Amino acid sequence: MESGGGGTVPIGVEEEFFLVDPDTRLVAAAGPAVAARAARAVGELVTEEFALCQVEGRTPPCRSAAELRGHLQRVRAALVAAARAEGLGLCASGTPVLQEPGPVRVAAHPRYQAGRAQYRSMMDDFAISALHVHVHLPDRELAVMTANHLRPWVPLLIALSANSPFERGRDTGYASWRSVLRSRFPCLGPPPYAVSLQDHERLAETIAGTEAMLDAGMPFWDLRPNPRHPTLEIRAMDVLQDLDDTVAVAVLLRALVVAAEGLARRGDPGPAWPGEVLRAACWRAARDGWRDEGFDPVTGRSRPVTELAQQITAFTAEALEEAGDLGEVTALFGRLAGRGDGAARQRAWAAGGGSTAVVDRLVLATAGPHGERG
Question: What CATH number belongs to 6-373?
Answer without folding.
Answer: 3.30.590.20
